[in-house]
């Protein structure tokens, strides 16, 4: 699990991602609603009008609105642009557990401890339907993402699926019968009901805390106080239990489907988040906190981002690293995607698969080292337990069918990192953090005593950069001695210029630019995360942060190009050229392989902007 953002606060009971902006809403047990920018790691706003815990929270998909429901029996609709509550909906007689907007209609769905589910029209500010049938607290109720269905979970140990097509037809068709005529029970003058129970799912032995639809398949996931996560399938006539995921050892608070993979995420009062494989019904990952029980999970609708609320705040996280392993040589970019090694020609933009990779590792490829002389690659896989990390040595086939590429046999061995140091030699940092030099047959040639280090990076033929907790050391493999050291904590990436005259050391919030002898030329500090970087052929270093593209000279002068915001940006040609260059760089920074070296002309145009355009 990669934690992207973390907060410290009162217990978080509700979470909602904004569909477009990098925002997340957190509703707290102390009555406060927080609006966070998880990319900038800042609190944008907070809303404090509820009396008591706020459990339900949800962003509207299009409008600048969100809805909240609390233990004060109130549902509040807020406008985050106006920074205030627009109105309050009253009708529930006990704590409100969840509140959700409908994806299309002007409806809000609420679940309450008064044993009812209510559907509200937020435009007319009235209750249009009450769903009754549960005989204990209703802990959760959600709309189906595309059909006229609602799923609910209750402490009466059942999950119910409701058909609300009658409500849609009556409320949203021409000549619809007014709510006042039918009454909010949802039964009209002729006895027809707007919402009927379609399925009652029985199988949990204790109260059910959460239920959710699959985004595209006829599946439901539920989590309950019996410590089980259940998967249910349904059709038009019936619903049945598919399987049960066992592993939690306390009440399951929440369970959701992964929006794009065959995975289920669940969290529990046992202080863990678990990831389950839907096809195998087995746990594939477990993340634990020492002291905090988990209460709620949220999945971003479009990105591989999740949020979990616990006793002392929340975390925003990814399940796995999305940045593909890549290497650049001349005008060729090599990168790993979907178990294939691919090659992108910068000049022609031709992207082809060159070979299929060996399967067997459940972890994605972490880093790559390319040897142009032998046309070979080292692919390193980083396991959760570092001691289980491996690398694979492949010779890239000279001729390959891009539609059906070869799958050559690779040589796999254990090791944290493997890097080429000569035409027919590579260095391996093994699990004991000692350095091994191997040949093309993957045989150990010699062992080298090195200073204590956590990671190794390429530093030219016969040299390596060794990273420890406090700095980076330039090490000569042939002479077996350290040549220079600089102090910079927790370097993540090392980027060499094409002639290896300069190197940029990238940490989480800092960049150090050094010369070939590892003498520091400048230090750059950023308040937000540094993501990637590349050298322009004229010696300018271009790098991305979470929300900017910037470039720096070796003297330490940092510039953030904004040509379209300058009144004196020169001719229209200059402005258009600047915008095109920035757009192309931004695409490179945000798509697949995060390298900015895919367009030398674009990069050099940034370095040669006239001063008026900077």
From TrEMBL:
Stored SMART domains: WD40
Pfam families per the UniProt record, alphabetical: B-prop_COPA_B_2nd, WD40
One GO term (biological process): intracellular protein transport
Top-rank taxon: Eukaryota
Limits of the COPA/B second beta-propeller domain: 341-557
Keywords assigned: ER-Golgi transport, Golgi apparatus, Membrane, Protein transport, Repeat, Transport, WD repeat
Gene Ontology CC, one term: Golgi membrane
SUPFAM superfamilies with a match to the protein in the record: Putative isomerase YbhE (SSF101908), WD40 repeat-like (SSF50978)
InterPro entries per the UniProt record, alphabetical: Beta-prop_COPA/B_2nd, Coatomer_complex_subunit, WD40/YVTN_repeat-like_dom_sf, WD40_PAC1, WD40_repeat_CS, WD40_repeat_dom_sf, WD40_rpt
Name of the molecule in the record: COPI coat complex subunit alpha
